[in-house]
Amino acid sequence: MPRTKKKQTDKNFFTDVFDVARLIPVGRVTSYGAIGQYLGLKSSARMVGWAMHGCPKDVPAHRVVNSKGLLTGKHHFNPPEKMERLLKKEGVKVVNDKIVAFNEVFWNPSTDLELNETKPRKKRPKTG
DNA sequence: AATCTGACGGGCA
DNA sequence: GTGCCCGCCAGAT
């Protein structure tokens, strides 16, 4: 939604990233690129991760990792260990700062969200 | 204003 | 499968 003639990147970009991140279900994770792609930034995954720089507490940044499932952003948490700690707490296995079964816990906003949350989403990839 | 940086991602060797 | 290079775009110095 075109706010005004002004730069659209005023802060919408940030808020958008945060908004999507907040949509990440518990026990699931996503990648910066996935969020970026959902927002249309696709090739600007850096922007997404970088945007997390100002990620408020309301945003589960710990559920966001790089496309390899690596907890690359753990260094930015208050206690870096908090990231995997939170993930493990939510059921996400983490070993060596890496998400276990990343392909299973991976959550794609562009596909899993697909703008129809009101509908009973289809089968899940089965958590286990 | 120009330059360097950054919580990334994909392609090629 | 791993390692290196480029692109991407906005912020900070």
From TrEMBL:
Q: Which CDD domains match?
A: ATase
Question: What's the short name of a Pfam family annotated to this entry?
Answer: DNA_binding_1
Q: Look up keyword Cytoplasm and say if it applies.
A: no
Domain (Methylated-DNA-[protein]-cysteine S-methyltransferase DNA binding) ranges: 12-92
Q: What keywords appear on the UniProt entry?
A: DNA damage
Q: Which domain of life is it from?
A: Bacteria
By what name is this protein known? MGMT family protein
